[in-house]
Amino acid sequence: MQDAKSLSRLDAIAQAELCARGEVTPDELREAALVRIDALDPLLRSIVTVSRERPRTLGEGPLRGVPFVVKDSTPWPDLRWSMGSRVFRANVARQQTQYGKRLAAAGLVCVGKSATAEFGLLHSTETLLEGVTHNPWDLSRSCGGSSGGSAAAVAAGLVPIAHANDGGGSIRTPASACGVLGFKPSRGRTVPASFGTSDFLDLTSDHCISRSVRDSALFLSITEDRSAGDPVGFVRDPIDRPLRIATWTRTLLADDVEPAVRRAYDDTIALLTELGHRVDGIAPPAIAGPPLADALFVVAGAAVAGVVDVVDRARGTPVQEHELEPFTWSLIEAFEARGAHALPIARNAFAEAARIYRDATREHDVVLTPTLATEIWQVGHLSPVLGREELIRRTARAVGYTPIQNVAGCPAMSVPLHVSERGLPIGMHFAAAAGADALLLRLAYQLEQARPWADRWPRYSIPTI
């Protein structure tokens, strides 16, 4: 058997291949992951619940025996399901989702739940329930959010792949922050990963954070809804034709990028041109940023107000002030103050923004922007105890590129192409038209071949300690 450290360097497919050849057993892969978690995660705090039990049954699919973690916004049977909130600190999931059934059938072994912002609301992973999840590149920095636990765990080599989801950048932001690949599928591409419905869930796509493109592509083929349109299948090859790529750097609120991000962006354009693609600088879509940002927080407020109402009715006593974070309460209060017309107004804002985005980009195959306008911020910059207006302002400044793809239902990805002079990862963001998931994955393969990142490990990771 290879040791836990050696195994940490392998992606999910490589670990599954070892298992298929009989060079390791599923139990050995699982135990190696637990050894890595015990060795490093007390420092990183990326995993909030560790599952040490051998699975009752093991699927015979293409990832048989591979350990992974599930974001704690999503249920997994017999594991705590807190959603990052004190109100659900003792909640245990009993049922499996359709999405989870696909993952289990593929042979993946859940070794724990990864940290998330409360209800996935913020682009940081620091909660009053679990504390701070640290970035393995720099412990003073945020790992992003809300899928920060998954991104940190994969970046540090604790697990080769991790479930994540994205309602406005929650896969792509932490992927950029932690120097890993974060792909968000098109709306409706995968089978349902939840039991409920809401406008907020309609914006959300489930997928994974990975170190390799092939892991992400295989994960999508496992979870896609094969009854909805043309299935993608397992995309295996790089793009073999020039693409028309539109690009801009201005965020939805008309902010521009920090110098380190600009250097990475300019280098990406040079790389794409070298690879034979046509890169066109265009005017950013003329989307009214403040109304769109407001609409996003309205639907978030509606979703958490609905959760509170369900809890109130289920237990017969109201949710108390100390059970939710201040920012969450502020979203509920702001939503309820708007009245009955708040959601229809938000839906209209989404429809208009999506129309403008599609019109501005329809002549191009792919859109390139930075993933974030800044290098990843310090811990506390997006703390949930800050005031609502300040948090929204800071979020809009840094995360001004990713939400429009959720609104428009498009696939998008953050690709770990760069590390700044300060030793911080900088992801570049690529998006395509709704349904063009395969095209984006093929571009990702090409970028991975041109600028390999597999051996780029953060300071606080299993291969480097």
UniProtKB/TrEMBL annotation:
Similarity-based family: Belongs to the amidase family.
Stretches assigned to the Amidase domain: 58-441
InterPro entries recorded: Amidase, Amidase_CS, Amidase_dom, AS_sf
The protein, known as: Putative amidase
Record-linked Pfam families: Amidase
Transmembrane segments: none
UniProt GO molecular function: catalytic activity
